[in-house]
Amino acid sequence: MNHAARWLKPGTWREFLIHDVGLAATFFVIGVVSRIPFRGQWLYHWDSVNFALGMERFDVRLHQPHPPGYLLYVLLGRLVNSFVGDTNASLVWISIVFGGLTVVAVYLLGRRLFGRAEAIVAAVFVLTGPAFWFYNEVALTYTVEAFFVTAIALACLETRRGNQRLVLVSAFLLGLAGGVRQTTLVLMLPLWLFSLWRCHWQISVAACVLLGVTVLAWLVPTVLLSGGPGPYLEASRSIGGGVLSDLELFSAGQSLLASLGPFVRLGVYLVYGLMFGLVPLLYGIVKGVGKARTWLRQWRSDTRAHVMALWLIPNLVLYAPLVRAPGHTFSFMPALVLLAAAALVAFCRDVSGRLRVPTVGLTVSLTGLIVAVNVAFFLAAPPYLFGIQRVVTTTPSWPTIHHRDRYLAGRVTYITQHFDPATTVILTAGPDYRHPDYYLRDYYALNCTADGSLVSDAPTESRTLVLLSDGLTSRQDGVQAVVLPDGEVLRYLQLYADSEIVVDQFDVSVRPRS
Prior knowledge:
The protein is of the alpha/beta class. It has 21 helices and eight strands. Helix 10 (about 180-195) packs antiparallel against helix 17 (about 305-320).
């Protein structure tokens, strides 16, 4: 009897094999099946188009895909596409499957960090969180990253607890993750290096070699397929442009409001990821501050704190203020979900006695409330908050996916049926700028800059300028508008010989060539 009790000691791997495999498998199935009805049917973002074009011909110089390359993601897309036969569907299926794997990884990590109750709550938060659900349905890399960072954290945790051979697993996972999203390699490296501490030196050396070989296995082909080191580095310089523009917000010459902009954006994205799960997370933070002295005394022996800190600190300090989309938070969002789940369970244990209600019942009730809000938001939130069409106000919801599919389908279908590629110019702006390269390849396409400006000569044989993006307007006489079957409006202007296309703050006009 005593032997059996030791064998089933809470938190052991044997107990996991007996009791947790079924739960993990159930979460995976739910994570996959629940996503199938809401799959995006069109390439959602310009990054999605870059990945799709990269599946045809990989070249970072052509942004096929964009720098720094994402080679392993593109190759996985090619592999899946060999069975599916549809580029967008292949990438979406990758998101769906890795979404299910992320739920499993979060559950397993939560089980090893805290306990079964916290693990279940965290898995449910990931299953229903609007941002997680949304990115499970579209052709982008963020869901794959969420799985890798969680799996790496789990392997590092077990390494620190004495299973040194798992450092080889974490090295391989970290190397693979870098081939999907290079930021993962950088941001998770401190935690991985820490996991080497106290490992036998031979295992540590083997792990470093394995990591190096895995990285080189995708980095070298990425560089060679992009013309060699020189052209690749030249193409990759564009990566820092957006980061540098954000860093300028923190310069002394910027206003306080402008400096707070990135943090407001981050706050909105945290809401998209956690929704009401932010409440128990804040409760846990406040409680933690109150017990800071106790926790600091326990810090040296608390492996869980080491893992979470080395996961979160590089992300929150170096990366979080620079995120530009909700999916960028997926390098650290699983950690916040786990902390929110742990805080919720702790809160229920703290107050259940005072309220004279069962802890389990209170935990289920509060979790159910958060889940209800999550599901309602994903299913019913409008595509844009307050009707403002900006990235930060674009909701991670099913109406957003449906609106995007309908928007692209209506425009592309009408253009291909009514406008001759030989005499038509397509003008784009914002998130649509790359789509003509995939869906309207026979047409001549122009794209506005980020501030909505452009001056370009129209090809001499062109007779029509179609404004593909609804953010483009024109106050010039002669603008024609077509109401598409979905109710959207497609505008176009007539061109003439020797005409010049001018866009100023997204207002389009045509004038004689100077």
